[in-house]
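Board notes, transcribed. Complex of a protein with adenosine monophosphate.
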Amino acid sequence: MTIAQTVSCLDGYDPDALRVDKAREAILACLSPITEVEQVPIQAALGRVLAEEIVPRINVPAHDNSAMDGYAVRFSDLQNGSFLKEVGAALAGKPFHGKLGAGECVRIMTGAVMPPGADTVVIQEVVKKEGERITIPPGQKKAQNVRYAGEDLKVGTAVLGSGKQLKPADVGLIASLGIGEVRVKRKLRVAFFATGDELASIGQPLKEGEVYDSNRYTVHGMLARLGVEAIDMGVIRDNPVELEKAFRTAAEKADVVITTGGVSVGEADFIKQMMAKLGEVLFWKIAMRPGRPMAFGKIGDAFLFGLPGNPVAVMVTFYQFVRDALLYMSGRADAPVPLLRAVSAESLRKVPGRTEYQRGILFKEQGEWKVRTTGQQGSGVLRSMSEANCFIVLEHERGQVKAGEAVSVQLFEGLA
Ligand code: AMP
Ligand code: MG
């Protein structure tokens, strides 16, 4: 099926003012997750996408054990007076070999196996010890300070599913089951290049009218964060022969090709002709700011994202369209990035009819989360992305925002 057929959900929509949510839906409809799988040691599995279910073959913990340093007792003994006899010790890795009789207790350390017969642990700080005679104060609760076998992970109950990107806690959890290797999806291969006759490379002096190519570095950075294999193909001039060669090579090497520049009105015609020859590419004008022009299509088996050239537009379109597409193709089953609410500390210019992604700084003032912009919002002002810690997402229908109104924000960073 062609891309144009697959994105029939766009039929009837204005291709010169496509809504963000519609474009997103259309893109995802065309993609499918990669299927190839490889086996890696768990040290190398951090950030990779799990391609199997992890089902414990042991309980974690494997035995009932103590959560505290203290004394293992029979709770029923505590009803008949508070004196117990210390008959031994249980340490982590060195269990007490014996059974607790009536009126007896065992000195126990955190992580030590509960001695047979004992059901409760009394912390050492509250007991009185005179030789073997241990005095327990009243007020203890049955089963306190005991960790039960399987409390963390249970034999037969799956703990991690296919599609989970492995975080430090997950790698530790797999290790706690004694598993040393896991099956993960192969990494998605993403080739990228920047286009433009005006682009100078770092190390060359700037000639009149030139700018240093920064897009290739931001794209590389954003790809690195997603855990894909990034293939940097450099800068390609606005020249049909060179461009055609670059597109062909990129599409052969990679699952996805990302380009920057060359999709604005003045340049698109030229690229359009060439792409029509190579594959199938749709040119969209998205009702958003920044980032209006964007191309999406397929060359051979590779999907193409033709992002705009302006540095901020590159990042916004990447985060709003490409990121989710790459995660989906990587086999990841992440929950969507949450939109949080914050109070706008200033009035914001906005007209209905497009979604805007203003660069914001979320901050706390007198117990309340507020957001202000980073100042100048031009799509060439990359400093705005560097200073921001969030996008202020102004919805399609929304108009002018007054200071004090609530707005949606999308945070750049998470914790784990
Ligand atoms: P374009 O979409 O190719 O017309 O480019 C739009 C604007 O973005 C122009 O001002 C370009 O100079 C600028 N631009 C394009 N590519 C890059 C790049 N790789 N690095 C920095 N600026 C760029
Ligand atoms: Mg250009």
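Residues 352 and 398 are 5 Å apart (CA to CA). The chain has eight helices and 24 strands.
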